[in-house]
Design goal:
The chain is an alpha/beta fold.
């Protein structure tokens, strides 16, 4: 993520790492210094998320599915 920030002007403060795995996607985002969002349509279940109380695998946000990502980020207009 540091390389993206330096080479493409990405701002970590405006980025969100979205993924379906706590141990890879969420950990990567947290360690990279960006907010994270787990979606529950893949590998991770709601029960697994509820068991993670601390550490680099705790997501900042959670969504039921990838279909909700656009709305959550404010990217979809009224339909």
């Amino acid at each position: 993520l540091d390389i993206l920030e330096e080479s493409h002007g990405m701002k970590k403060s405006r980025a969100v790492m979205i993924g379906d795995r706590l141990d890879t996607d969420i950990r990567f985002g947290r360690k990279g210094g960006v907010d994270t969002c787990v979606v529950l349509t893949g590998c991770t279940t709601r029960r697994q998320v509820s068991k993670v109380l601390w550490g680099s695998n705790v997501p900042h946000y959670g969504l039921e599915s990838f279909a909700e990502v656009g709305k959550a980020l404010g990217c979809l207009g009224e339909q």
